[in-house]
Design brief:
The protein is an alpha+beta fold. The protein is built from six helices and seven strands, in the order αββαβββββαααα. Strand 3 and strand 4 form a beta hairpin. The protein is globular. It binds FE2/S2 (inorganic) cluster (2 copies). One FE2/S2 (inorganic) cluster (FES) binds next to loops.
Length: 213
Protein backbone atom coordinates (compact mmCIF):
# COMPACT_ATOMS: atom_id res chain seq x y z
CA UNK A 1 0.00 0.00 0.00
CA UNK A 2 1.29 3.45 -0.84
CA UNK A 3 1.78 5.87 2.03
CA UNK A 4 -0.19 9.09 1.96
CA UNK A 5 1.59 12.23 0.69
CA UNK A 6 3.45 13.10 -2.48
CA UNK A 7 6.07 10.94 -4.05
CA UNK A 8 8.62 12.23 -6.55
CA UNK A 9 6.43 11.51 -9.59
CA UNK A 10 3.47 13.31 -8.06
CA UNK A 11 5.65 16.31 -7.26
CA UNK A 12 6.89 16.47 -10.86
CA UNK A 13 3.35 16.16 -12.18
CA UNK A 14 2.13 18.98 -9.94
CA UNK A 15 5.06 21.18 -10.93
CA UNK A 16 4.48 20.52 -14.62
CA UNK A 17 0.74 21.12 -14.40
CA UNK A 18 1.35 24.44 -12.70
CA UNK A 19 3.76 25.50 -15.43
CA UNK A 20 6.87 25.26 -13.29
CA UNK A 21 9.87 23.33 -14.40
CA UNK A 22 10.81 20.57 -12.05
CA UNK A 23 14.47 21.06 -11.15
CA UNK A 24 15.84 17.74 -10.06
CA UNK A 25 19.29 17.68 -8.51
CA UNK A 26 21.60 15.09 -10.00
CA UNK A 27 22.23 12.15 -7.76
CA UNK A 28 25.35 12.65 -5.66
CA UNK A 29 27.70 9.89 -4.73
CA UNK A 30 28.78 10.05 -1.11
CA UNK A 31 32.36 9.04 -0.41
CA UNK A 32 32.65 5.52 0.96
CA UNK A 33 33.36 5.32 4.69
CA UNK A 34 36.63 3.54 5.31
CA UNK A 35 36.37 0.99 8.10
CA UNK A 36 39.25 -0.15 10.24
CA UNK A 37 39.63 -2.39 13.31
CA UNK A 38 40.66 -0.86 16.61
CA UNK A 39 41.65 -2.41 19.93
CA UNK A 40 42.36 -0.77 23.24
CA UNK A 41 42.14 -1.29 26.97
CA UNK A 42 39.40 0.73 28.64
CA UNK A 43 39.26 0.88 32.42
CA UNK A 44 41.33 -2.30 32.60
CA UNK A 45 39.11 -4.19 30.16
CA UNK A 46 40.44 -5.41 26.85
CA UNK A 47 38.30 -4.19 23.95
CA UNK A 48 38.35 -5.30 20.33
CA UNK A 49 39.27 -5.60 17.69
CA UNK A 50 36.14 -3.63 16.75
CA UNK A 51 35.70 -2.49 13.17
CA UNK A 52 34.77 1.18 13.13
CA UNK A 53 34.78 4.10 10.68
CA UNK A 54 38.41 5.11 10.33
CA UNK A 55 37.75 8.73 11.29
CA UNK A 56 35.50 8.10 14.29
CA UNK A 57 36.43 10.16 17.33
CA UNK A 58 37.09 8.39 20.61
CA UNK A 59 34.06 9.93 22.32
CA UNK A 60 31.74 8.52 19.67
CA UNK A 61 33.44 5.13 19.93
CA UNK A 62 32.93 5.15 23.70
CA UNK A 63 29.31 6.21 23.42
CA UNK A 64 28.14 4.25 20.41
CA UNK A 65 30.20 1.07 20.51
CA UNK A 66 30.96 0.55 24.19
CA UNK A 67 27.93 2.17 25.84
CA UNK A 68 30.23 4.29 28.01
CA UNK A 69 28.34 7.57 27.94
CA UNK A 70 29.95 9.28 30.93
CA UNK A 71 32.44 11.25 28.84
CA UNK A 72 30.65 14.49 28.00
CA UNK A 73 30.49 16.10 24.61
CA UNK A 74 30.51 19.85 25.19
CA UNK A 75 31.96 22.02 22.46
CA UNK A 76 33.12 19.16 20.26
CA UNK A 77 36.02 21.37 19.17
CA UNK A 78 38.69 20.81 21.78
CA UNK A 79 37.92 23.93 23.81
CA UNK A 80 35.90 23.02 26.92
CA UNK A 81 37.69 19.82 28.04
CA UNK A 82 34.44 18.20 29.23
CA UNK A 83 35.33 15.13 27.15
CA UNK A 84 38.77 14.51 28.63
CA UNK A 85 39.82 10.91 29.26
CA UNK A 86 43.05 9.61 30.75
CA UNK A 87 45.70 8.02 28.57
CA UNK A 88 48.04 5.67 30.46
CA UNK A 89 51.45 5.73 28.85
CA UNK A 90 53.80 2.76 28.75
CA UNK A 91 56.32 4.61 30.95
CA UNK A 92 53.84 4.81 33.83
CA UNK A 93 52.84 8.42 33.28
CA UNK A 94 49.30 9.51 32.53
CA UNK A 95 47.92 12.42 30.55
CA UNK A 96 44.67 14.07 29.58
CA UNK A 97 43.37 13.61 26.05
CA UNK A 98 40.33 15.33 24.56
CA UNK A 99 38.21 12.54 23.18
CA UNK A 100 36.14 14.82 20.92
CA UNK A 101 39.07 15.71 18.67
CA UNK A 102 41.17 12.57 18.94
CA UNK A 103 40.34 9.61 16.76
CA UNK A 104 39.71 6.18 18.23
CA UNK A 105 42.51 4.90 16.03
CA UNK A 106 44.99 7.04 17.95
CA UNK A 107 44.34 4.80 20.96
CA UNK A 108 44.83 1.53 19.10
CA UNK A 109 46.82 -0.76 21.39
CA UNK A 110 46.81 1.80 24.20
CA UNK A 111 45.24 2.03 27.64
CA UNK A 112 42.72 4.63 28.68
CA UNK A 113 40.55 5.39 31.67
CA UNK A 114 37.16 7.06 31.52
CA UNK A 115 34.91 8.44 34.23
CA UNK A 116 33.27 5.02 34.50
CA UNK A 117 36.55 3.60 35.81
CA UNK A 118 36.85 5.67 39.00
CA UNK A 119 34.23 4.40 41.43
CA UNK A 120 34.21 0.79 42.57
CA UNK A 121 31.20 -1.39 43.32
CA UNK A 122 30.99 -4.05 46.00
CA UNK A 123 30.08 -7.34 44.34
CA UNK A 124 27.90 -8.49 47.24
CA UNK A 125 26.11 -5.38 48.44
CA UNK A 126 26.14 -3.55 45.12
CA UNK A 127 27.19 -0.40 46.96
CA UNK A 128 29.41 2.01 45.07
CA UNK A 129 32.46 3.66 46.58
CA UNK A 130 33.56 6.89 44.96
CA UNK A 131 37.20 7.61 44.30
CA UNK A 132 38.79 10.12 46.72
CA UNK A 133 38.54 12.80 44.02
CA UNK A 134 34.86 12.18 43.35
CA UNK A 135 34.18 12.11 47.09
CA UNK A 136 35.98 15.40 47.61
CA UNK A 137 34.05 17.09 44.79
CA UNK A 138 30.84 15.87 46.38
CA UNK A 139 31.79 17.17 49.83
CA UNK A 140 32.66 20.57 48.40
CA UNK A 141 29.53 20.81 46.22
CA UNK A 142 31.95 21.43 43.39
CA UNK A 143 29.40 20.85 40.65
CA UNK A 144 25.77 21.64 39.92
CA UNK A 145 24.59 20.12 36.65
CA UNK A 146 27.70 17.93 36.61
CA UNK A 147 28.24 18.13 32.88
CA UNK A 148 31.85 19.22 33.25
CA UNK A 149 32.60 16.90 36.17
CA UNK A 150 34.00 13.86 34.31
CA UNK A 151 36.62 16.11 32.75
CA UNK A 152 37.51 17.64 36.11
CA UNK A 153 37.75 14.20 37.74
CA UNK A 154 40.06 12.94 35.02
CA UNK A 155 42.28 16.02 34.96
CA UNK A 156 42.58 15.98 38.75
CA UNK A 157 43.52 12.30 38.60
CA UNK A 158 46.31 13.12 36.17
CA UNK A 159 47.45 15.94 38.44
CA UNK A 160 47.51 13.75 41.57
CA UNK A 161 49.41 11.01 39.76
CA UNK A 162 51.94 13.55 38.51
CA UNK A 163 52.42 14.94 41.99
CA UNK A 164 53.04 11.42 43.31
CA UNK A 165 55.92 11.14 40.87
CA UNK A 166 57.08 14.73 41.27
CA UNK A 167 56.02 16.35 44.57
CA UNK A 168 55.93 20.13 44.59
CA UNK A 169 56.84 22.81 47.08
CA UNK A 170 53.94 24.16 49.13
CA UNK A 171 54.50 27.58 47.59
CA UNK A 172 53.77 26.18 44.13
CA UNK A 173 50.47 24.52 45.04
CA UNK A 174 47.97 27.20 44.02
CA UNK A 175 49.66 27.85 40.70
CA UNK A 176 49.95 24.12 39.98
CA UNK A 177 46.24 23.53 40.57
CA UNK A 178 45.27 26.54 38.47
CA UNK A 179 47.37 25.32 35.58
CA UNK A 180 45.91 21.81 35.83
CA UNK A 181 42.28 22.96 35.82
CA UNK A 182 42.60 26.11 33.78
CA UNK A 183 41.43 24.67 30.48
CA UNK A 184 38.26 23.12 31.89
CA UNK A 185 35.10 25.16 31.38
CA UNK A 186 32.21 25.03 33.85
CA UNK A 187 29.08 27.07 33.26
CA UNK A 188 27.59 26.52 36.71
CA UNK A 189 29.84 26.91 39.70
CA UNK A 190 32.56 29.41 38.93
CA UNK A 191 35.41 26.98 39.53
CA UNK A 192 36.18 27.97 43.12
CA UNK A 193 34.69 24.87 44.67
CA UNK A 194 36.53 22.60 42.28
CA UNK A 195 39.72 24.44 43.09
CA UNK A 196 39.17 24.23 46.85
CA UNK A 197 38.36 20.53 46.67
CA UNK A 198 41.52 19.75 44.72
CA UNK A 199 43.62 21.86 47.07
CA UNK A 200 42.27 20.03 50.11
CA UNK A 201 42.80 16.67 48.47
CA UNK A 202 46.40 17.45 47.55
CA UNK A 203 47.17 18.66 51.06
CA UNK A 204 45.41 15.63 52.61
CA UNK A 205 47.27 13.11 50.48
CA UNK A 206 50.72 12.28 51.87
CA UNK A 207 53.69 12.77 49.60
CA UNK A 208 52.28 15.25 47.07
CA UNK A 209 53.67 18.38 48.68
CA UNK A 210 57.25 18.36 49.88
CA UNK A 211 57.53 18.33 53.64
CA UNK A 212 53.90 17.24 54.14
CA UNK A 213 54.63 13.52 54.67
S1 LIG B 1 33.80 18.47 24.07
FE1 LIG B 1 35.89 17.98 23.84
S2 LIG B 1 36.93 19.82 24.36
FE2 LIG B 1 34.81 20.36 24.45
S1 LIG C 1 28.64 21.89 36.97
FE1 LIG C 1 27.45 22.46 35.25
S2 LIG C 1 28.93 22.85 33.72
FE2 LIG C 1 30.10 22.51 35.48
Amino acid sequence: MKASGFGLNEAIAVAQSSGQSAAIAPAQTLPAVEMKPVSMTVNGRSIGPVTVPEQIMLIDFLHEYLGLTGSRLGCGQGVCHACVVILDNADGTSEEVRSCITSAQFFDGRKIRTIEGHATRDAHSGNATLSPIQQKFLEHFSFQCGYCTPGFVNSTTVLIERLKRHPIERSALEETISQALDAHLCRCTGYVRYYEAVKELVLDTPGLVKGSE
